[in-house]
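notes to self, project folder thing:

trying the whole complex as one job this time. last attempt i did each chain seperately and stitching them together was a nightmare. two parts in total, labels are on each line so i dont mix them up again. if this works i'll redo the older ones the same way
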Amino acid sequence: MHTIIADNLSKVYTVQKKRSGLSGSLKDLFSPIHQDKTAVGGVSFVIDEGELVGFIGPNGAGKTTTLKMLSGLLYPSGGEVRVLGFDPWKREYDFLRQISLVMGQKNQLWWDLPAVESFNLARDIYAIPQNTYKKTLDKLVAMLDIGDVLNVQVRKLSLGQRMKAELVAALIHSPKILFLDEPTIGLDVVMQQSMRQFLKEYNQGGDGSIILTSHYMDDVKELCKRVIIIDQGAIIYDGLLSEVIAKFSQHKIIEVITRSGTTTHKVLRAKVAQKAAQLLKDPDVVDINIKEVEIEDVIRSVFSATKGSDLKDNPNKKVRNLARL
Amino acid sequence: MQKYFSIFSITLQEIFAYRLNMIMWRVRQIFVFLIPFFIWKAVLGGGGEIYGYSFAAIMTYLFGTTILRSLVMGSRTIDLGWMINSGSLTIPLMRPFNLFVFFFIRDLADKLFNLGFMFIELPLIYLMFHPPIFLQSDLIPIFLFSISLIFAILIYFYINIIFGSLGFWSRDVWAPRFLLMVIMEFATGAMFPLDMLPAVWQNVLHATPFPYLLYAPLKIYLGTDPFIYFHLVASLGWVIVLGLLSKLIWQRGIKSYEAEGR
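result (full assembly):
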């Protein structure tokens, strides 16, 4: 069964356009200019039970907006969405009990109270039986290693500790779907790593789906088999992460190691063998490596290729542009 | 039910976490009594009556509004506009409970907190100023007063939801709220009994929901309201009208909620 079905889902915001300068501000007071801004323009995809899917894209691509529509926070401007068979927007209790939303920059814990109070509140809100609660809490606390800070006021926790506590609060009711919006934002490298490790283990331990957005490629590389690449409100790729490279990059990298140093060559896939043979003829060559282009580079080029172009109306053209990479 | 009780208890814990804030708020309550006290003392302290009120009668009235004020106007829902604009509404919105009940429970926690502290402050105010206290011994006015108090609490709750919901459409939630506060300061009868006003103004005010917050319940308690039943029906009318209006506005507004902050 599909856990999530989105069909031609879109969201248009009305924003006020500000004129520049003081005189502009005065004019805005009397005749504000409103503009429609398409944050998400008709995206379609399905996500199955237990999947861990990453939405990636630059800032303002529409990742978070999509996530908010899936979780029922935003009212879609158009299209259909079904999550666990529910219309998320209606926010029925049976739906809300089965999902969880964590936003990296939003605090769901009670700021002035120890984290454990927020967990206890969640227990009562979700009507979790005491022994199930105890078991889940112990498991999560052990996995995230935050046993020592449960009784500290949330405001006094470090960002990393707080994010871990956020995750406990979000998972205490064992949701079927976990929506994570930029879970590692602002965290140091070690903490990012431990968050990823946790998410990986958590996903393997149950059949809950995790949908995450991130603009850190490392998050996605380590966690997600499947990625949905979104830019300017449209999906430009939906599939296996491992195939992103093959799809968007027509080149491979040949690394040539000589006694005097290492040089790299970017070569069209079709010509790799020929070029390698040619390079090997050089008597100075000690070794050669043939590698794929780094995924970061591929994705970066994907996004920079779409910048400033009018690809919106013509997604095919976008892909054609990308093929040049 | 357990979930609403827990919300109630965590709200109280939250209030207690801000000790200084809590103390200052209590001090403010005393000042709220002091200002009109000294004004009326200057006017009527030497004896005599104004609009049928002697100094003692005014003091009884003010003492009454001070108590009622902390019960009726104790509120956490006043944060709603800010919650919408900052995106923190997202968190309660994603929980399986009724949002109106959530806010109302938080209001009740605030009111209980006020009530608790009143037991300390009232003797203090009493010892300092000796206002003549009127204890109603007749059960009927007490019963009717209780009903009008519940209506007052609901009216104030819905007014807060409506004003807070402005945040769905505008960033400017503070100016309207401030205006509301200023209007309420006199239109509820917090500063002076409304029957001091000319009849025309009394009628105009009674067509708004404000007198039913403090003035009407207090007059019912004192047993000096000649139109008790009429005022009770009018209060109920406002509860229904404002209740429906707040639902309608909320349902419209929530569609344009953008869950900002990211």
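what i see at first glance: The beta strands of chain B are 49-50, 53-54.
need to look closer tmrw
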